[in-house]
Amino acid sequence: MRIELRERTEENARIYFEKTRDDQIRRMLPQKCRTVEEAVADYKKSLKPDADSFGQTIYVDGVYAGDIWCYGLYGEEPDAMISYCVFEKSLWGQGVAAEALRLFLKQMVEKFQVKTVGGFTFADNAGSIRVMEKNGFRLEERFVEDGVASCYYVWNLEAENEGKQV
After folding, report:
1. In Å, how far from its chain's centre is CA 146?
2. What is the per-residue pLDDT across 61-99, written as a single tens digit (0 to 9) for each?
3. How many other C-beta atoms can be found within 10 angstroms of the C-beta atom of residue 109?
4. How far is residue 61's CA from residue 101's CA, in Å, rounded to a whole number?
5. pLDDT tens per residue across span 18-48
6. How far apart are CA 152 and CA 159, in angstroms?
7. Predicted structure pTM score
8. Is it the case that residue 165 has pLDDT exceeding 50?
9. Most buried among 9, 22, 136, 139, by the most CB within 10 A?
C-alpha cells in the first residue's frame, strides 16, 4: 500500500465535505463547516500568505482517501494543532492515518519549523488515539466538554529526537 500526501485543491475540499457527512465520521470528527461553501472558503483562506492553517490530501495507491491539516500555526504553545480524517472506511485500521500523520509531521517541521503539535480526540475514538500514540503524541489531559469525554495529546520534536538516540 503506497500512502502519499498531495496538495489540496478546491475539488478536494468539496469532495471531503461531502464524504464527511457520514454519520459515523461525524461522531468521531467534530466539524466546523456546515455547508460546502464554508468548506471552500476555509480552503481558500488556507492559501493566503498569512494563513494559520495548512492541509494536504491523503492518497492511497493513487486514490484520494482523506485529508490531514494543521491549524493555529504561529500561535502560542503548541506551535500548531493537528487534525486528520481517512473517509474511506475500507482503509480504517490499516495504518493509513498513522503513516499520513508521520509524513505530515515531517513536512510541518521542515516547512514551518514546528517543535510542538497538539491534537484533540474523543476519548472513545480508539483509532485516533492509536494514530497519535504511534507517532509519539503523549496524553496531556482528559476532560469532558459538552458532555463528551475527550483527550488532549501533545507531540514534542525534542522528545522524539531524544527517543531515537540509542
Report:
1. 22
2. 999 999 999 999 977 889 999 999 999 999 999 999 999
3. 15
4. 17
5. 999 888 888 877 777 789 999 999 899 999 9
6. 17
7. 0.90
8. no
9. 136
Place of cell 484520494: 64
CA distance 70 to 91: 22
pLDDT greater than 90 at residue 161: no
Read off the amino acid at residue 48.
Answer: K
DSSP 110: H
Is residue 102 a contact partner of residue 68, using CB atoms and an 8 Å limit? no
CA-only gyration radius of the chain, Å: 15
Cell matching residue 105 = 509531521
Q: Which residues of 52-90 are buried (b: 16+ CB within 10 A; e: fewer)?
A: ebbbbbbbbeeebbbbbbbbebeeeebbbbbbbbbbbee
